[in-house]
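Let's practice the habit of predicting before peeking. Look at the sequence and jot down your guess about where helices and strands might fall. Then scroll down.
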Amino acid sequence: VSRVPFSCCFGTAVANKGVSKGKWYYEVFIVKAALYQIGWVTENFSADPEEGQGVGDDPFSWALDLHRLTVWHNEYEGSKSYGKFHWKKHDVVQCYLDLDNWIMSFGLNGEHLGVAFSDDEILSSVSNTNTCLLYTSPSPR
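Done guessing? Here is the structure:
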């Protein structure tokens, strides 16, 4: 995992391995109930921590945010309500990516929350870059 340097605001961690086909999954343990955007990015993703730009804020990233009960893609253009419960300390978030069927979804403490993004929402960005990476944007607050 590599980090995008930042002096304040919205830090970034990105995996150093990409995937281009198959079904993928990872988990994130929530150590503090706070604002996070957790999800997937392509290699064309660009973070700007000083401007508060993280995963879900550009066309090459998709994010879960259970602090605001929202999933994000391309900032506000692709955002929508998602989930019923806010995450809290010691929760476990599941991140699912099915590149065979073009489905991205999330879970909380083992409960699947449903499809977050599918088909064209993923295909248009991933097919041009041929990779997805896991990604988290934690707020330092």
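How did you do? The mean pLDDT is 81.
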